[in-house]
Amino acid sequence: MKNLLYTSACLLATALAPAIAQDDCEFEAQVEFYTSMWGSEISWEITNDAGDIALDGGNYEDYDAEAYVHCFEPGCYQLHMYDSFGDGWNAAFMSLNFPDAGIMLGDITLESGNYDVFNFALGAECEFEEGTGGDGNGNSDVHGCTDPAAVNYNPAATIDDGTCIYACEDGGEQALLYLCTFSQGDNVALEITDDAGEIVYSGSDYGNMAIEYVDICLGEGCYTATLTNTAGEGGWYNGYFYINYGWEQIVYATLPDDSSEWSFEFSVDGSCGDVFGCTDPDAPNYNPDATVDDGTCLPTCECDDEPFEPVCGMDWLTGELITFDNLCELECVGAYLYWEGDCADQPIYGCMDPEALNYDPEATVDGGCLYPIDCEGNTAIQIFAIADSTEEGGNFPFASWYITDVNNAAWYNYVQYQNDAGAWVADGCIEDGCYNFTVYAGFTGGTSASVAVVLDGETSYYDVNNDTFQTTFGLGINVEDCEAYVPGCTDETALNYDPNATEDNGSCIYPLVCEEGEVAGQLYVCTFSQGWAVGLTIQDEEGNVLFDQQGFNDMEILYLDVCVDSTACYTATLTNLAGDASWYGGYFYLNAGWEQLVYESLDDNASSEVLQFSVDGNCGDVLGCTDAEAANYNPEATIDNGSCVYPLDCEGLISVYAELAGGTWISEVFWALVDEAGNVAWEGAGSWVETGQQAMEFCVPPGCYTLVLTDSFGDGWDSTVLTLTWENESVDYTLETGNYGEYSLGIGSDCNDQPDPVAGCMDGGAVNYNPLATEDDGSCEFAFCPTNEVTFVTVTLEDGLSLGWNLSSGEAGANVGGGAYASNTSHTYTACLVDDCYTVTMWDMNADGWNGGWIEVWMDNELVTTATMEDGFMTTMQLGINAECDDEGGIDPGFWLDPIGFAPYPNPTEGETNLNGSGWDQHLPVDVEVRDVTGRLVHKRTIVPNGDNAQWVLRTDAFEAGMYIVTGAQTGRTAQTAIVVR
Predict the structure, then answer these.
(1) What H or E segment, with its residue span, contains residue 488?
(2) How confident is the model at residue 971 (pLDDT cuts 50, 70, 90)?
(3) Which of 11, 12, 62, 6 is nearest to 958 (CA)?
(4) pLDDT of residue 276 exceeding 50
(5) Vertex 903: Cα angle to 900 and 904 (nearest 5)
(6) Which residue has the higher pLDDT, 4 or 66?
(7) What's the Rg (C-alpha) of the chain?
(8) CATH number given to 654-755
(9) Confidence class of residue 398 from pLDDT cuts 50, 70 and 90?
(10) Which of 908, 879, 894, 881 is nearest to 977 (CA)?
(11) Per-residue pLDDT at 583 exceeds 90
């Protein structure tokens, strides 16, 4: 598994190697497909107007990449996109580009659901009845610097890409210096001086496998970097450094292997110093201006007989655009073809016909034109998406719209383009009648926006304000007095209340109210194929039916709230209505009273099955320890599940309690405790955690021992920690690197060789944070903070390994937090936060609270507030940094309960869990992200609850075992929860 990244990179390079161009092809397409998770669910096909399949694909691997070159005939085409599970393509996308024709359709994806269609025309006039059209549901996010305090702040950016540059107190602007060593890091030294000889940065004696992030200030003028091997040897032993200035990397260098010292000049604007590049005249990317070879030379190709017909391509390794003498040289090095011609002469794709709606006078290559539709007796209509230009950020079309008729059928008979003023214009034809005209907010700035509709020369404006997500208006086409008609639930007390509904359609769903003696529960049924053959009946011993349905849809998820009698014995009958065996992968479960009463699927060798369950355990099989000699003997258990634990008699010996906190790749971990005679007194392996065992107790005689730690892959324990506790001592052990390590320890004996404390920076927010340090040496270094430096102090008493917290929301709250602490310790995390309201999530994997532990928040040497969790698995609270946050319950001014949240079940889980979102607006989208404990994004999706609890189901069968943080965001509010995948 550890070579997964390398393998994926090789597959990508292979899959995207240029194919041989097809001659005499008017519309040659370059098709690229990239998958994320759940690639096997995806398929697609492109059909012509006769319904024939021109190109298709599917059955992908996860994180796969494929590329095709295909010749299309002129005509009308539809791209059909399918997802077998029905939750969209999960971040997979495809690009469909026709470089020679100047048609670039961009990134196309299936955002949600199981089907969508994308229409496009090649050299033909086409009329499509339905389809997405437009930009293919591409990503409309704007990446850039979102911090107003930065000198390169981009007010249009919606996602911060880490490129912010800050002004320095003494002039200049902030840049990031990154230095990495491998072996013999103590011989590595680097000094950077400005043109006045002043030292900007100086460092040496870094240590092995060191990584250093440092903020430095750079301004105009020349700088000199001096790289030295202090031992007088050659090179930096594969070590290197670079400097990033905003989005650009202005330096990337290492000490040459034949030199013990080397200096070069550089600047932020490239006006002085060496020019890095390929210095080999025979290489296709030879740079005659380069003074230092940076190792990027591409291989020499046998293309001497080819004519000089320059093409512009991209080097996959460096991302550099390179002008090749001909296509032969480009294909030789495996570069990606962008366009024919020199890279300096980038073509401008656009419509070149002055009579067209989307005419672009600057276009040099025709990219397709749009012409008015012939209305043939219908009414011409124009719709302009405009913004309130008086508001900040109002230069963008911040409102969107759609039109539906009385049968809720969408109107698509239009062409859309962007006019000279930057507004998006829909130009089309519409039949007479009454329509619903829905305007919804799609803006990231400004406070209001409008959509203008032009009919018969008259313009009407439809507004959406900053406090309204969407509004539906009545639109009459040659018909008077049309009013909006939005059927839905109009009862505000209902779970599915629709504030936009104009007429109640009887669809209201109300909270389930159970009678005395009943427990509220949730019944979940899931089918895959042949759902029509699935039958399920649940009834109590008196014949009262709780649920009965014979036959379901394929790929159906049924989620029902039910009331379960707390004293009844229920019988579930599972049937295959076709007489075959199994439910074809389908299953059901029932949760009640915070427990999962039953989870079952029809056996693969049975056409029917009967089982019993209850809330109080008065019927059916009871799993547990059946051995009366065991400490956890359960006299009511009917089936032994292997959980028996027997009391240890350590008379004359010392009891040692071992606890394992798992990191990643835990199956590689092994250890042994060896006495002075070389005998193994106790041993264990990382498979503990994988089988659910995280702690155990054993007995050893007093004496001196050696604890041997090994890793089968040879890269250390990947943050896994083994804690041994005996008498009044508790010590953490781990293997930082390599495949072997050992510690000497005395258990009940003074062996004078206890492990020395590991000195280092223990603040989790420092750039030089050492997670293995047990003693803070005051060496912590922090990145420049132009806003608020906030320190979180975590104090643990008992069960520290099960505790954790996380800060989210706001502009700078991502990946701030910690967990898996030693008991009876304190830890700090210093973060740079802007003025905002933040969400603090605290959890305890033992579900009994923080056992007296707490969090302190300090700013400007003053205590801002404190928080703790009295009991339970998780709580979510609010923290205001120089901001007034709405108080929900009058709790401590710094923290209070958040009304939105999750209650995942089952948790821990193996295949899937229902996040059970509560408090969310049922009609607005919720962006859900799942990250592992390192902050790596493993899953992302957008859902609209709509009162359907099945929307919250999260599949986890492709996740690695471990803990994950789930974050939901809706209209500026966020909530988090933690799930554990076994």
Answers:
(1) strand 487-488
(2) low
(3) 62
(4) yes
(5) 135
(6) 66
(7) 33
(8) 2.60.40
(9) low
(10) 908
(11) yes
Answer CATH for 372-485 from 1.10.287, 3.30.70, 2.60.40, 1.10.10? 2.60.40
- Residue 324's H or E segment, with its range, is strand 321-324
Q: Strand pairing partners for 189?
A: 204, 228
Q: Where in the chain is the domain with CATH 2.60.40?
A: 4-122, 372-485, 654-755
The closest alpha carbon to 445, from 142, 650, 223, belongs to 142
Query: Both tokens of residue 536?
Result: 């399920």
Helix (H) or strand (E) holding 337: strand 336-340
pLDDT (0 to 100) of residue 137: 30
Give pLDDT, residue 165: 67
Spatial contact of 204 and 192, defined as CB atoms under 8 Å apart: no
Question: pLDDT at residue 662 above 70?
Answer: no
Comparing 823 with 33, the larger pLDDT belongs to 33
Contact 773, 779 (CB under 8 A): no
Task: Report the C-alpha gap between 211 and 218 in whole angstroms.
Answer: 21
Region(s) of the chain under CATH 2.60.60 = 171-274
Predicted pLDDT of residue 236:
94
Per-residue burial over 693-721, b = 16 or more CB atoms within 10 Å of its CB, e = otherwise: eeeeebebeebbbebbbbbeeeebbbbbb
Long-range contacts, 54-62 (Cβ 8 Å, 24+): 55/29, 55/31, 57/33, 58/82, 60/33, 60/35, 60/92, 61/35, 62/35, 62/36, 62/37, 62/38, 62/958
Contact between 915 and 952 under an 8 Å Cβ cutoff? The reply is yes
Strands (E), 88-150: 93-98, 103-108, 115-122, 143-144
Topology, domain 4-122: Immunoglobulin-like (2.60.40)
HSE, side-chain direction, 13 A CA sphere, residue 575: 15
| Cis peptide bond upstream of 361, omega within 30 | no
Highest mean pLDDT among 14-23, 116-125, 586-595: 586-595
More confident residue, 736 or 654: 654
- Strand 159-160 relative to strand 143-144: parallel, antiparallel, unpaired? parallel
- For residue 250, the model assigns a pLDDT of 84
CATH class of the domain defined by 171-274: mainly beta
CA proximity to 131, closest of 212, 92, 76, 180 = 76
Q: Of the candidates 174, 243, 172, 180, which has an alpha carbon nearest to the alpha carbon of residue 208? A: 180
Helix (H) or strand (E) holding 331: helix 327-333
CB-CB contact of 216 with 228 (8 Å): no
**Region of poorest pLDDT, from 62-66, 73-77, 580-584, 832-836:** 62-66
Instruction: Count other C-beta atoms under 10 Å from residue 31's C-beta.
Output: 19
Write down the pLDDT at residue 158.
Answer: 63
Least confident span in 211-225, 306-320, 593-607, 614-628: 614-628
For the chain, how far is it from start to end, CA to CA, in angstroms? Answer: 17
Q: 3-state class of 6 per DSSP?
A: helix
The neighbouring-strand residues paired with 866 are 856
Instruction: Judge if the upstream peptide bond of residue 757 is cis by omega within 30 degrees of 0.
Output: no
The contacts of residue 24 (CB under 8 Å, 6+ apart) are: none
Strand boundaries in 702-845, DSSP class E:
703-711, 721-726, 729-733, 740-747, 759-760, 775-776, 788-795, 803-808, 816-819, 826-833, 836-844
Contacts of 461 (CB under 8 A, 6+ apart): 450, 451, 452, 453
Indicate if the pLDDT at residue 530 is higher than 80.
Answer: yes
User: Strand pairing of 775-776 and 759-760?
Assistant: parallel
CA distance 433 to 436: 10
Distances in Å between the alpha carbon of 691 and those of 87, 120, 694, 833, 981? 31, 53, 9, 40, 12
pLDDT digits (tens, 9 = 90+) for 160-217: 656 676 677 677 788 889 898 888 999 999 999 998 999 999 999 898 888 888 889 8
Q: Residue type for 178, please?
A: Y
pLDDT for res 523:
92
Neighbours of 941 (CB within 10 A): 17
